[in-house]
Each structure stands twice: as C-alpha cells, then as structure tokens.
Amino acid sequence: MSFLFADLFAGIGGFRIALESLNGKCIFSSEWDKYAQLTYAANFDDIPHGDITQIHPSKIPDIDILTAGFPCQPFSSIGKREGFEHPTQGTLFYNVVKILKEKKPKAFILENVEGLVTHDGGKTLSIILETLSISVNGQYLFLCQPEIRYHVFWSILDAKDYGVPQVRKRIFIVGISEDISTDIPDFRFPIPHLSKEFIGSYVEENVSGYSISKHLQSSYLFKIDDGRPELIDRESRIQVKTLCSTYHKIQRLTGTFVKGGETGIRLLSENECKAIMGYPQSFIIPVSRTQMYRQFGNSVAVPVVHEVARNLINCLAKYKVVKENPIKKSDLINV
Ligand SMILES: C[S@@+](CC[C@H](N)C(=O)[O-])C[C@H]1O[C@@H](n2cnc3c(N)ncnc32)[C@H](O)[C@@H]1O
Fold this sequence. Notes:
Blueprint: E1 3-8, H1 14-20, E2 24-29, H2 34-44, E3 65-68, H3 92-103, E4 107-113, H4 123-132, E5 133-136, E6 139-140, E7 150-158, E8 169-177, H5 214-221, E9 230-232, E10 256-259, E11 265-266, H6 270-277, H7 289-298, H8 302-318
Parallel strand pairs: 1-2, 1-3, 3-4, 5-7, 9-10
Antiparallel strand pairs: 4-8, 5-6, 7-8, 10-11
Helix pairs in contact: 1-8, 6-7
The chain binds S-adenosylmethionine.
C-alpha cells in the first residue's frame, strides 16, 4: 500500500525514515532550523520548507497522513512547562489544527514528550484531545464540539520496548478521520516486544575524539553525589537513559557516558547515538558534534514510530483508503 504524507516539525526526518519504510511518499516537509535542514537535505535530497506559521495551509499538497512531533520544549519536564502560554511554541499545536482543518488528511500521528500528560494538571492534553476528537481511546466524547473530527488514540510508548537500547517515553497521539469511519476504528498501539536490546552490543571500541577531560570528570561529572551519571561498556545489559538535546553540554548529570576513550570516559559516539535512536548507520551527519547531539536528542526513536505507523496503515487499509496514489509534479509546491 502506498500513501502520501507531510512531515511537519521534521527535525532530521525520524518520521520520514519510518513512513518511507512503509511505502509512504513524503510530499511536504517543514523544519525551520538551518542545521536540521542540512541533515535532512543530506539524507533525503529534499530541503524542508521553513517556518510553518508562515505557510498557508492551502499551500500544502493533499496528503493521506500528517505527522508532527510538534516542539516539546514548552511541555517538557526540562523546559519551563509553559504549555499554551508560551508566546509562540505552545501555539504551534494550533498551526497543526489549522492544517488538519484545511487538508483533512485521513489520519495523523502526533508525538510529544511524556510530560504533556501531566502538564497543567492534565488540562493541556485535555484541550488537545477536545480540539481533535470525536472519540478518545475507543470512547465517544458526547459533550464535545471538536474543531476537527477524528477518532483519537493516545498512549505513552517507551522506545526500549520497541527494539532500541534507550529508555525514551513519548506520547503518541494517532487520529483517524470521521470521514474514514463513523464507527470507532480498530486501531491498536503496537505491543511491547518481549525481548529487549542492550546497549552493550552497540558500544564501539577504540573510539577517539569523544573524551571527557579528566578535569571535567573530577570538577563536574563526579564532583559530588548530586547526580548519577551512568557508565556503560560492552558488557552493559541495560537500556541507556533518554538522550536529551543538551547531552553534549554534560549539564545532565543523569546522562549516560561510556568507559573508554583517551581519558577513560567519553560521550556516546555518533554511531552509538544512531543505534539508540534506531537510525540506520548509513544516516549522514553533515553538521558539528554539538548539532548532532542536539538533533538526535530532539528526534524520535525510529522503530517505535515505524510500528505505530504500520498499525495505522494496516487499519486504514481495512477501509481501502490508502492505495496507489500517482504523484504529479504539480502536487509538489514551492512556497
Ligand atoms: C521535537 S523536534 C521534532 C524532531 C523530529 N520529529 C525528528 O525526527 O527529528 C521539533 C522540531 O520543530 C522545529 N520547529 C519549531 N518551530 C518551528 C516552526 N515554527 N516551523 C518549522 N519548524 C519548527 C524545531 O526546529 C525542531 O527541529
């Protein structure tokens, strides 16, 4: 089955890798960060459009599925938890809503940090669900007047349950349009795998250039017991802690570091980052080390997205709404 999709807040294309592997064709992408655009272009031969708030939804081509890992900073437990009050970033959700209203895709997949669930005592998630949904997780919402009418399913999924050696809990919000089915569709989130991947199998040997200086180790990393950096090696039978976008600054005393390198302790290497995010080793990183950590730390673990999208496609296929879709050059826009 093939389908067309738009990749919003595209970052370095984690959603794109997952959906392309399911025979999806990306016909629109948006990402305003110039370094992320560089990485995206190097891997997909496609430069994403910029600021989504400056693109009128009518300019976006017709799509079957919309994906959006909308910015999580306002909702994250690391960010200031400003949510919708954030002057611009919090309202980006409403840009997604505008696009859904105009383009009416058959389905969408949204992704955000786990902290969205508890943000503002649960009000933020309630507003999101009430805006999008006629049903939530198999229950109709009778008193709601949603702006757009989707059957919505949400769940917190942990990437470690779907084949990567990293704990990474994210909320996934999947919507299936009422135009596809007035009854609640039979969508299920993927079941956690029984067997887990351990980081030890992915730790590289003889890696140079990622070392943490002895000074930094003693003055900061292990200074006092105000944090618990995790040290791993090839024997480690664990999943590493969540890679965050500030990993390289070693601000997170709760981060994961590797035994080895010139000084005895080093940062995760590029290949190790790819492995814990489920990216192919062939993925090209044309940017600096700092940008590389930032980009992977902001991204999605590809295998879990793949499984969510696979279940969605299988569900849509039952309604025979994802089909061969010839793409005309005129479908592709210049904005
Ligand atoms: C949480 S990250 C999503 C990462 C992506 N899912 C991936 O796989 O790499 C959110 C992204 O939205 C981008 N972004 C934020 N505001 C934007 C805007 N107004 N227009 C376009 N992109 C924006 C950020 O630069 C960031 O890369």
